[in-house]
Structure formats: C-alpha cells, structure tokens
Amino acid sequence: MHALQYEITLPADYDMDIIRTRVATRGRLLDDFPGLGLKAYLIRERGADSPVNAYAPFYLWNTPEGMNSFLWGPGFQGIVDDFGRPEVQHWMGLAYEEGPAGGAPTAATRERVPVPAGVRPADFVAERLERAPAPGAVMRALAVDPRHWELVDLTLWERPDPRAPGDRFQVLHLSAPERAALTRGRHW
User: Fold this and answer.
1) Residue 33 pLDDT greater than 90, yes or no
2) Is there a contact between 79 and 6 (Cβ–Cβ < 8 Å)?
C-alpha cells in the first residue's frame, strides 16, 4: 500500500463551493480506477476547525502501477492545469484497518507525527497500532515517509470524534474501487 496526498491551499476568500462542484461533477471518475484502494476527497475551510481553505485529496493505492498511471496521466494533469503542480506527499503503507462504523465517511483527521530520534521506529509504530479504532471510525491507515521519518495517521469518520488529534477535514466523496483489496493489519 502507498499513501499519497497533495494539499492545495486556497485564498482566504476562496469560494469553496467551486471545489464542491468540482468533486460533485468529477469525483466519480475515479470510482473504478485500477489500483486505487481509495481516494478521500478532503477539504478544509477557514474558520471551521482550520486556519486555511484547502483541497487535500488523500489516496491509498494497492499498486504502484495504479498510482503512477494517475500521476502521469490525465487525472493529475487536471489538477496541474487548474491549480499548478502541487507538492505530492508520499508515504509507505504500514497498516490499514476497517473501523467499527459502516456508513459513508463525512469527516477525516490526519495526524502527522515525527518518529522520535532515539526510539526504535518499529516500536513507535507498534504503539500507535495498539490504539483501538474509535466508535465513529470508518477506516484508519498508518504510513511513513522514511526520508523525513514522519508518520501519517489518517482516519475517516462516519461521526467525527471531537477528541481525535490532527488536522480536520470534511469528506466530499469517497472513491473506493479496490478498498476490499487493501491488506488489513500490519504490513511488515
């Protein structure tokens, strides 16, 4: 599994309905994309649990071929054409779990945590994995960027937990053509 995200920060007075319309009209285009486990179409709105407006889709890929096909194909080129080429964050997948909530996700939290120096990385990740999914969680994924030793912990929520740490997002749409194929549990 590979995790990928780009976050496009938008002006403070940006009309976020433009993004909502974009997702409503184009989101389904990835509903059957080969190699895609899931794509959560995420936004943050200034003043609503966020200091900025942002469009920040988050992907879990089952195959590198699917991820590459998206990045080098017309899908990502549409983002580049409309917003410029954003920095794409990429993490190696460490774990994936389905949560106890079975409905459609409406919110997401993303916690980015440095893996502390002097700590065994596997022990640090194992401790994070021991945290049980909260009642409103639809799914949770952990991934790491070993270049910067940063762990990303993403949870999609049917009912957001106000105590959950991290950046908060609204989920506008979920494309999940190969979600059932995402390997459950620890990936090492």
Assistant:
1) yes
2) yes
Beta-carbon neighbour count of residue 136 at 10 Å? 20
The H or E element spanning position 127 is: helix 121-129
| Structural domains counted in the chain | 1
Among 154, 167, 159, CA closest to 102? 159
The CATH number for 128's domain is 3.30.70.100
What are the backbone dihedrals phi and psi of residue 53, each rounded to the nearest 5 degrees, phi first? -90, 135
* Mean pLDDT for the stretch of residues 52-73: 97
How many residues does this entry show for the chain? 188
CB 169 within 8 A of CB 44: yes
Quote the CA–CA distance of 186 and 188 in Å, as a whole number.
Answer: 6
Is the separation of the CB atoms in 42 and 56 below 8 Å? yes
CB 31 within 8 A of CB 175: yes
